[in-house]
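Dear support,

I submitted the protein below through the web form. The confirmation email said the job was done, but the results page showed an empty box. After a refresh the structure appeared. I'm attaching both so you can tell me whether what I see now is the final result or a partial one.
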Amino acid sequence: MSEASETIVIAIDAVGGDNAPGAIVAGAQQAAAELGVPIVLVGPPDQVGDTGGLELIACTEVIDMKEEGARAVRRKKDSSLVRCAELVRDGQASAMLSAGNTGATVASALLRMGRAKGVNRPAIATPIPVPGTTPTVLLDAGANAEVQPAWLVQFAQMGTAYARARYGLDTPRVGLLNIGEEESKGNDLAKEAHGLLRDAPGINFIGNVEGRDLMSDDVDVVVTDGFTGNVALKTLEGGMKFLRDAVFTALVSTEEAIKASEVVLPLLLPLAEELDPDTHGGAMALGLNGVCIIGHGSSSAKAIVNAVKVARDMVEGDLVAKVARAVAAGAGEPADSPAG
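What the results page shows now:
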């Protein structure tokens, strides 16, 4: 463990997600033991229960998965999500992590931590697994249903900094999600954004990409509005789940298939591991004055462990400052302009 890791504290929303608090607390305990990263849990003590020795920051409120994010954050000021964000804001934690209400997670981080200097809107960056190579970073995956063309340029700048920091890519290829590869395709938003992205400094823009390119090695970062991004993400998740279930159902459908599965299953398991969202540590809200990791709603203990790894690595890699510098450079400011 590096010296920097010894000072990193991860604040975890213990009551967020479909499997909370059991899987969340178990994952936090495992992460603390295996990674040596200090973790604090946040939640109502009567709901969290036994923390296995991990520190618990008590609160009195929980934001439900079905609540409207920003409204709930403003109303429930003593919720686990708000307290997590305040711990980061106040320097008592280095990053926050929740598998709960996505909108409320982003809203709590935005309202308590604030935006990085020069950022118009934060965006959710989600890794899309691509077997055999690095994931494709999709953003925005749900934070902004409606966007302006200039925001998509910032998403590209932030996504580029993220792909470099998380996946070690020197010059990530950036694509604009559209209904065709031709420059003339798409609505007014896509057409205007295409021109801005093409002319923007510091972005390796390769043009329009289509939905079929998300799980290919043809692009590293894909930008779009949050409505389209979230629909694309959920469509991929549903398609992969259907295919997985269909394959495994077929492998136990007959005696012959069961015998064949003894050979086939060991070959499929590594692929299943790569496609498992629990493997990739969740999404990240970019453009904030702090690290905010968003796990999927059905996160398991394994997902929490991997999300803690991502949070630790992004703090150690000073991602927040790198994103701010990328946005500042794109706006023509000095490359060493500090984050706000």
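Response: this is the final, complete result; the empty box was a page-load delay. The longest helix spans residues 226-250.
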